[in-house]
Predict the structure.
Amino acid sequence: MPRLDYFAPGVYVEEINRGSRPIEGVSTNVAGFVGFTEDIRNGAELYKPMLVTNWSQYLKYFGKDNSDGFTDFNAYLPFAVNGFFLNGGGRCWICSIGTHLPGKQPTPEQTGLEIPTRGRNRPSLRLGFKTPRANLPSVTIEIQDSTPKALPPDTEAETPEDTGEFFSILVKHGDRILERFDNLTMNREVNSQVGDYVVNRVAQSQILQIADISQVGRPLARRPANGTFQLNLPQVASRPENLTRDMKGSQDDRTGVQGMFEIDEINILACPDLMRVYEEGLISLDQVHDIMGLQIGMCEGAISGNVPNPPNRMVVLDPPPDKVKPQEVAQWLEDSKLRSMFAALYYPWVTTTNPKDGKTINIPPCGHVIGVWSRTDETRGVYKAPANEVPRGIIGLAYETNFREQELLNPKGINCIRSFPNRGIRIWGARTLVEPDITEWRYINVRRLISYIEKSIELGTQWVVFEPNDEDLWARVSRVVTNFLERLWREGALFGASPEQAFYVKCDSELNTPETMMLGRLYVEIGVCPVRPAEFVIFRISQWNSSDGA
């Protein structure tokens, strides 16, 4: 700003910032998923959200070594996250609630570390903890080349030939070597003067238990691959009676569903394994509704009144797996009383391939749908309805909905996923779960566009706080907001032949009276006209004779 004191004669050069500060749009396609994972490692924690940006990174934190990342008990979260990335999703936060279902004792196959052969096409060894130790939650296993045992100095026999089948196992915690086993082989009948069969030798370990799971073949072919592997203690899952509480989590501890809302950038939320635990009978349908209601309530910012920022999140819900037919889903929604402009429901479940056994499996559609939302945001914009789009990675539907059945579901806000001849499977609905008579918030893209505008203006006008509240500030604020909205209008997000028809910005003495200024308040009134999707396309056709005139 200009100086107020000039005492010495001379030339003074001063820089004055007179330009406006443009408002930058916020991200709209960062997802949050809550559910079960295959593993929790490399810094990821139970119930704590972790950011991942691609499928490889997901495997790094939530998949076992040399695994596809899917679980043996068919948890839905890996399918949802994979569908999210497959359909164009970029960033998401994962909150793992365990690596096995509550009340189910995990098998060694589920908790052990499988090390493949050198060809990495078959399993060789399975390692696990002999006795769990609280101070040793994980160890690093290193497989290295080794040699046959050295002969005693007074032995005249020939030195055994190194066939490449011998290896060493190092057990490390950080940089410290806890145990080391050399001269190991997969040969069960090896001469003890030449080497040790790996199972017999590692049985002496104080830390590890081991199993030979290799198939038939020569010892060299069954030898484990060299490399570094991480062995973690099995995560202690919730007790069945505490599952609902642990899934909800805590805002203070940043855990569970509530912990997701402490991460500002998350704006789409889903909990696919809510249906998995319901399938297993671990929670009741009322508890399902309770957790869904919590997600909706926090999206609305209504829990305890402790969310002062504009609500810019939506939750994607899944119907229960036992509600297969349209009439059942419609009745379930009516009974659940789940209504909100910040929620969307998609039906039916979708069919995909299970990498674990190659068979088909029906899964909740939320992950693939959120991926389509993200792809639409990137390619068209948040103002485009995420419908009439093909979800990738889907090979079928759990129920084939027809036109008449969608006539029942669509007015209730249930978005159908349908199969069309020669057009494939498409998302054929774009409505929120708002009450049917509240038409201004009927469409997903309208709700998300307004949230996008609100959040962008909130973050882009932070510089206004504590500025002098005068007409100059009013004009500057009006200018930057007008420029932002005009840019949206030119991109096609707002309806109108001119900016004046598309929006207005008011910040003047009528709104900002001396009384409000004495309270330190600045009021800005904004009105926008969002574009709405052409949900019903009607062509009116009649016979016409040119002699009849227009």
